[in-house]
Amino acid sequence: xxxxxxxxxxxxxxxxxALYFDRRRFLAAMPAAFLGARELLSPSARAxxxxxFPNLAKSPFSTTEKxxxxxxxxxxxxFYEFGTNKDEPSRLARNFKTYPWTVSxxxxxxxxxKFSIDEILKLxxxxxxxxxxxxxxxxxxxxxxxxxxxxxxxNLAQPTSKARFVAxxxxxxxSEMPEAQHAGIDFPYVEGLRLDExxxxxxLLCVGMYGDAxxxxxxxxxxxxxxxxxxxxxVKSIVKIRLVEKMPPNTWNTMQPIEYxxxxxVNPNVDHPRWSxxxxxxxxxxxxxPTLMFNGYADQVASLYTGMDLKKNF
Length: 314
Ligand code: MTE
Hints:
alpha+beta, 21% helix, 5-stranded mixed β-sheet
């Protein structure tokens, strides 16, 4: 983003999918073996031990485009808490402790509440959503995420009439994330949405990918996925969701407001000051492909922005 050039690709640490799953199954199965009772594991640990989330419902929002490989998606990451090179989060987040975990939903809500990750996993039926994901750096991927619409969680908290925006905060602990101090951005990583954007059914509260729990480098144990917006809006490893009256700050906008807007909807007609946004590099493809308005989700989300000047409100 600020630091990296667009499209700098490094395919190091390539792990075949089977090997990756086997290693994770092995690690996840360890406590069960020690305890001698799989029932004693948390639901998220059970999902890992089983290797799959059972019964993921299919979603009408899923694209039929070719999915990227698990290797691409888990070894080409932006997670600045764990380094600014694309191959660093897969290595440096390896021991990131994501269980137990709680997410606090607070602010302008009738029912503020802390949700454990086990509660989040059971709060609504998990769906598989195969979404395009377009980074502001002009690379893209297609990922089968698992989760459900954020609105399910927000409705439980009951936003008050004063709630107009939703502010998200990522986990931050400098002792677990020593690389963060070299990242050049402020932490904790924060993001925001207008309430109607957050309530849109496409806005995914995501707990998994490829039928399994999220790996640490992809934002375990729970993150947002907002497929019509540049990837930096999709905040990882969420610990706080606060409903607020005023537009909340978002990390990249605070750092460089001319380059990164609050809305950051994918828009091929508004270039980043330092590079074009008209096309993108889909990981694994040789030729660039044209970037679509709202990343191809215009039919679903364009009405959220009726009457807005999208060049000004970029
Ligand atoms: N969330 C946090 N907490 N820290 C980050 O550095 N990077 C963002 C977003 N969420 C980021 C984050 C950016 S720039 C992108 S493109 C996506 O996560 C990348 O998600 P992925 O690594 O799963 O592809």
